[in-house]
Structure formats: C-alpha cells, structure tokens
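[Discussion] Sanity-checking designs against the backbone

I'm trying to build intuition for which residues belong where. Below is a structure token string of 189 positions. I'd appreciate it if someone posts a full sequence so I can compare it with mine line by line.
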C-alpha cells in the first residue's frame, strides 16, 4: 500500500515547483496545478489540448480558503454545500488571487470545497487552491478509472500520485452557478 504521507510530500514538491500532477480527487482522476501560477495553468491547457476559453475548476480545502479566493460568497452557497449529498462545484462571480488565465471572460470561477481526505491535506499544506480538470485530452471521454487514462496524459504530467481513487462511483461533481445577486442555476446535475 503506498504511503499517503510520501505521496503528499512528492505532490507538494511538484506543485511548489510549478509542475502539474495527476491525482485522485473526491470525484474523478484530475490533472492539477497551482491555481495562482499562470505558467503551470498554461501547461495544463497544452497537455489537454484545450482552448483557454474552456474553464477549469479549482479545489479549496474549506470555507475559510474559499472566502480568500472569491470577492463575496453568497449566503445560499453555504446552504447548498452544507446539504449537498455529492461533490458540488459552485461557480462564483469575481474570483480573487488566482491566475488570470484560469478566469473565463465572464469573470467567474468554479470552486469546490473538497471532502476527500488526501485532497484536503494536500491543499491545506499547499496553502493555495489547486486546479482540477478531468484527466483526458479535450473532447475525449473522461476516464472512469486509472486504467482509462491516456498514455499522453500519464507521460505529460510531472508527477502521478500513487494512491487509489477512494470514491468508487467516480462521477464528475454537480456544477451550480450562483450569481452575485444569489440567483442559482444548475449547470450539471
């Protein structure tokens, strides 16, 4: 069994150097990097062969970190997250302190407060949000398990976290957009 502490240290070291990691999230296998490092984000776009207008999401460890990266978290977001039964990403208006190239033209950003213990520890130790995007080339299906991850992705990242995906039902998160005026729109159930 791989040692979670060793994997945590190796992933942290890679993120701090501006590298990109392949890691198990609270939903599916993700490609991640420092959400405040524009060069690292460019590497992810290049690896996925993805146009920059397609947005990626960020993972944060808790509500306190969430508040540091969004101008204003609408009250309704806390209620949604508190009662959500599955991983839920919320798209917020006016993100702060993240790299410009991760923010789409509408000045919003999808952020998920993680429930996965490994992700939570990694983000807490890193002290910054981490980008999370599915481990596939843009336009290809998202891999449902590690074996389905394309060789180009495995070889294109700087570090592959050697831990199993804890969530056996590996499905992408729900995505909900909450406007500054607290309007709620479900993007993906």
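Best answer:
Here's mine. Compare freely.
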């Amino acid at each position: 069994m791989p040692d979670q502490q060793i994997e945590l240290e190796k992933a942290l070291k890679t993120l701090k150097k501006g590298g990109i990691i392949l890691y198990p999230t609270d939903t599916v296998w993700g490609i991640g990097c420092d959400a405040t490092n524009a060069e690292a984000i460019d590497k992810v776009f290049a690896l996925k062969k993805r146009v920059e207008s397609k947005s990626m999401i960020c993972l944060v460890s808790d509500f306190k970190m969430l508040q540091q990266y969004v101008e204003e978290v609408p009250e309704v977001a806390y209620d949604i997250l508190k009662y959500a039964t599955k991983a839920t990403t919320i798209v917020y208006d006016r993100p702060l302190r993240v790299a410009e190239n991760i923010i789409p033209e509408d000045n919003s950003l999808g952020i998920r407060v993680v429930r996965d213990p490994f992700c939570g520890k990694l983000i807490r130790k890193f002290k910054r949000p981490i980008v999370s995007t599915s481990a596939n080339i843009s336009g290809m299906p998202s891999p449902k398990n590690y074996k389905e991850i394309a060789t180009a992705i495995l070889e294109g990242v700087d570090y592959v976290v050697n831990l199993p995906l804890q969530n056996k039902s590996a499905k992408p998160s729900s995505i909900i957009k909450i406007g500054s005026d607290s309007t709620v729109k479900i993007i993906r159930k």
